[in-house]
Design a protein that fits this description.
156 residues, mainly beta, Sulfite Oxidase, Chain A, domain 2, five-stranded mixed β-sheet, four-stranded antiparallel β-sheet, 11 strands, binds ligand MTE, binds molybdenum atom
């Protein structure tokens, strides 16, 4: 069953699971020990207007690769079958595709940020950052889960 924001007893941790060889329960400290990137994003929220934030953290791609998705990493078409369902603690969620963040396709340098505007996110949990998004909805705060999912089952 998919973890919900309610039944995860692990404050600040992110459960990375699904069609991967190495599922993991990741703390902000573990994400902070990986190679770090930084980015500033500006976006327009329909309710709160223009926003701008500075984030640091590992590339989502590096975090996911460490979990070893069950595709053949050298086969581009094989990678394109994969979906990434991202869940925030409050139940806010969004689905990405592997192709969006794959360097050979969309190449979006998405982060799992461990700091926001120079504030440590250890207590809150990591923050998904989608550079280039015009709306803020996919900059998901307090990420508690990412499910990696081969889309094959959508076709039965
Ligand atoms: N977990 C979670 N993250 C979320 C949301 C949410 O409802 N839940 N709203 C999104 C939306 S719509 C926007 S515009 C931005 C706003 O972020 P800010 O208020 O920190 O600038 O957060 C995004 N991240
Ligand atoms: Mo928003």
């Amino acid at each position: 069953m998919q973890p919900t924001s309610i039944d995860l007893p692990t404050a600040g941790r992110l459960s990375l699971w699904g069609d991967v060889r190495r599922p993991a329960l990741l703390s902000v400290a573990m994400l902070g020990s990986m190679p770090q990137r930084e980015t500033t994003v500006s976006f327009e929220c329909r309710t709160s207007g223009q926003r701008r934030h500075y984030f640091t953290g590992p590339l989502l791609l590096d975090v996911l690769r460490a979990a070893e998705p069950l595709f053949d990493p050298g086969e581009r078409k094989d990678r394109l079958r994969y979906l990434l369902a991202v869940l925030g603690r409050d139940g806010h969620r969004a689905v990405l595709s592997w192709g969006e963040i794959d360097p050979e396709f969309g190449n979006t340098p998405a982060l799992l940020a461990v700091t926001m505007d120079c504030q440590d996110l250890t207590e809150q949990g990591p923050h998904l950052v989608m550079p280039g998004d015009r709306c803020g909805s996919r900059h998901i705060s307090q990420v508690t889960g990412i499910r990696v999912c081969a889309a094959d089952r959508l076709w039965g």
